[in-house]
Structures are given as structure tokens and as C-alpha cells.
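Q&A log
Question type: sequence-to-structure
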Amino acid sequence: MTTSDPFQAVFEQLKLVLKPYEPFMDVKSDSGIDYYLDTRTVNPKNKLPIFFGAVAIKKNYVSYHLMPVYIYPELLDSVSAPLKKRMQGKSCFNFKSIDDTLLKELRELTERGFERYRKNGLLGP
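Response status: OK
Response body:
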């Protein structure tokens, strides 16, 4: 996919939601069509870094993955119906477009997830 992709602008907006957390994470991918952040903490069960979030351009939408909502589902208790409608599975939100209201809410949800990871020692050294 190229920069002429109709979802590129949505991807860039969603990437900016995760970007502030980059200094606290390891960037596993930043290709222009996907952006992936892992924590610096290794899961003792599978010996892999704990996933935090990602954005990826797919065929029919842009996906935004936020693992803290999977680990701490109560983070979703205050999520609006329009944002919940974008959910697929337990930690993925799909967008073809995004407005300022949803973007703001997603930023706040991501911040709450980051703070929860920090509070529970999941960010690593």
C-alpha cells in the first residue's frame, strides 16, 4: 500500500495516538502501513515482550489494537457506544474514517491503558 491509500490519513492519525508512548516501549514495526509497540517487560509464560498497541492498514479498514483493554477490560466501562461499535474482538478497533470526538476518546483510553500498565509494572526498566 502506498501513501495514496485512502486509509493512509486515518493510519497517520491513529499512529499519533500511540506515538507519545514510544520512549517507554520498543518499536517492533514502523513501516508506513503498520506501527507496533511492545513493552520492555517479558511475559514469563511465553518469554515474549508484552504487547501494548499497534496500528495497521488492512484491506477494508485501519485497525487499532490496544492490549491494555484486553488485560483490564474494565477500562472499557466508560467507552462510548460509537467507539464500542468500532470494536472487533476484545482489543481491536476498526476505522474507515475517524472524527475528532472518537480520536480524543481513543487518546484518553490509550492514556488510561498506559497508566494501568505503568501502575502494574508492565512497562519494564
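Response note: The longest strand covers residues 34-42.
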